[in-house]
Description:
With about 400 residues, this protein is of the alpha+beta class. It has 2 domains: about 5-210, Ribosomal Protein S5, domain 2, CATH 3.30.230.10; about 215-380, Alpha-Beta Plaits (2-Layer Sandwich), CATH 3.30.70. It contains 12 helices and 14 strands. The strands form 3 sheets. Strands 6-5-7-4-2-14 form a 6-stranded mixed beta sheet, sandwiched between helices. Strands 1-13-10-12-11 form a 5-stranded mixed beta sheet. A hairpin with a 5-residue loop joins β8 and β9 (about 205). The longest helix is centred in the C-terminal third of the chain and has 25 residues, at about 270-295. The protein binds alpha-D-galactopyranose. Alpha-D-galactopyranose (GLA) binds near residues 41, 177, 180, 181 and 342.
Amino acid sequence: MTASWFRAETDGALSAAAGEFFRVEFGADPAGAWAAPGRVNLIGEHVDYAGGLCLPIALPHSTVVAVSPRTDGLIRVRSTDGAGWEGRLDDVGPGRPHGWASYPAGVVWSLHESGLLPDGFGGVDAAFVSTVPIGAGLSSSAALECSLALALAPDADRADLAAVCVRAENDIALAPTGGMDQAASLRASEGHALLLDSDSGAISHVPFAPEGLSLLVVDTRAPHRLVDGQYAKRRAAVERAARRLGAPLRDLADRGRDGMDAVRGLRDDVLRRRAWHVISEIARVRLAVEALESGDFAEFGRLLYASHMSLARDFEVSCPELDNAVESAMIAGALGARMTGGGFGGSAIALMPTDRVDEATETILRRGRERGLTEPAFATVAASSPARRLH
Ligand code: GLA
């Protein structure tokens, strides 16, 4: 059985591809090109919107935007898969434009609202190329947003730019996501995981370059849509649980045993399990950081798997394709594996001895076929660079 792999490109190749696409679409050379990566979250899932801790890495897969300023106020955006839009700032509002274009148009709108568009902004031509697979739960939308935000406001503070992109996604694309993906894309560091405290906004960089181990990403290719309501339902349940408990779940997580007892006292079974996931996941992130700092990858792997079980059983955001990727990787010798991102499809990760990666992909494919599941695509990834200028 041959596995299909989704590959990253060098910055040089990406820059050349974006420049060529820009010339085809707009008939001139771009003024510059900017890249922003997708992400996988190592641990800390469905906690960012509850003020929790998460630990993503930037992927070697990026979205690149080639841009040139305009002077007539027009915004023209194009993507290599045929999507495009032309309009003005006044045309942008909640749900307008619709679909793919809401992300780039939303970024321009959100920069404007935050006062971060450079003085005299007169519109822009922007052409996007990407190696982040779309719909794979690897934050292709954050990569797109962050590449454009940085291209238009390169001197802005990166935390401010991340907030701008979150606002574009929440208010214009109408996806009620937290801020993890944009923080990872703009603020991660090569060779490190980004520890993000979503309550204070504080970040730190935790070394993540395990020797002899590989991080395998499995894009299940199962249908995955954050805007289809399930994500919003989970977020609403977490907020309802916090209201019933009279405290943000992050505060309860910080209170240790008292906080756990409070959550155990929730009468509603579904709310209790949702809240339990959140506070136990925040505890797992802290332990995972300790494990990484002491080089204890066996413990780190156990925490990844415990996170998956919590997401599957208590938070109920997994699916057969994700479970198969995780269980098969564990059978093939992973130290740990879990779904990553919002869930309901998308991708899983597995931390493997490098010499077991082939066995893992074969086991995932074989067991997936036995269960009649869509064939996934694979990548092995290292913690890579955040958003940057290419030329
Ligand atoms: C999506 C969202 C993030 C985060 C994850 C779940 O990726 O964009 O903000 O909530 O799901 O951890």
